[in-house]
Design a protein that fits this description.
Largest sheet of chain A: 2 strands, antiparallel
Oligomer: heterodimer
Distance between the termini of chain B: 19 Å
Low-confidence stretches of chain B: none
Number of strands of chain A: 2
Order of helices and strands of chain B: HHHHHHH
Strand content of chain A: 15-25%
Mean pLDDT of chain A: 70
Largest sheet of chain B: none
Strand content of chain B: under 5%
Helix content of chain B: 55-70%
Number of helices of chain B: 7
Number of helices of chain A: 2
Radius of gyration of chain B: 16 Å
Mean pLDDT of chain B: 95
Low-confidence stretches of chain A: 1-11
Strand order of the largest sheet of chain A: 1-2
Chain lengths: ~40, ~130
């Protein structure tokens, strides 16, 4: 899949500094996990 | 997802509320999967009923998400994911079983929350790829 081939190679602007794609995906993973722990149930 | 990738809206967030726990706590298709497809649909879904090309495109993208989710989680059905993660099914629409689920730590990191993280990551990968094109 194309997104798998290019995964981790791009940089995304965030809050005045640039983070790579892996960092952003890790952050989204953790946020979703924490939100489920905190707000469901 | 909305915060980090600027997709969706307050209306979409509201509409997703009852998808949790396999649609209204019924243990059907995992809410993390349907939520991921919903988020991606805000970018690739058809805007007009007659737009079959866009419908087909959104189906193809959703299928990629479905396959990846099933590979990483082991199943797409909430009650089956319970068996994988907890060794039994918790019928969350039954108050006693819902309480038992919470008491045994159902919302610990390695339970449903990790599944939500996996789904969000898959959706984010797809969305980033779509935005690149």
């Amino acid at each position: 899949m194309s997104f798998a081939k290019t995964w981790g190679k791009n940089e995304i602007k965030k809050g005045g500094h640039r983070m790579n794609e892996k960092e952003l995906l890790d952050e989204i993973f953790e946020l979703a996990l924490q939100n489920d722990m905190s707000y469901l149930g | 997802m909305q915060e980090k990738l600027n997709v969706g809206s307050k209306e979409v967030f509201k509409a997703a509320s009852a998808l949790a726990a396999g649609v209204a706590k019924r243990g059907e298709t995992c809410g993390a999967l349907t939520g991921a497809i919903l988020a991606i649909g805000t970018l690739v879904g058809r805007e007009r009923l007659e737009d079959k090309e866009q419908l087909q495109f959104s189906m193809e993208i959703a299928d990629q998400v479905y396959v990846l989710f099933r590979e990483k989680v082991g199943h797409t059905i909430c009650s089956e994911i319970h068996k994988i993660r907890y060794g039994r099914v918790y019928r969350l629409f039954i108050p006693e079983e819902s309480e038992a689920f919470h008491n045994m730590g159902g919302h610990g990191r390695k339970g449903c929350p990790e599944v939500c993280g996996i789904a969000a990551r898959i959706a984010a990968e797809v969305i980033l790829d779509l935005k690149r094109k």
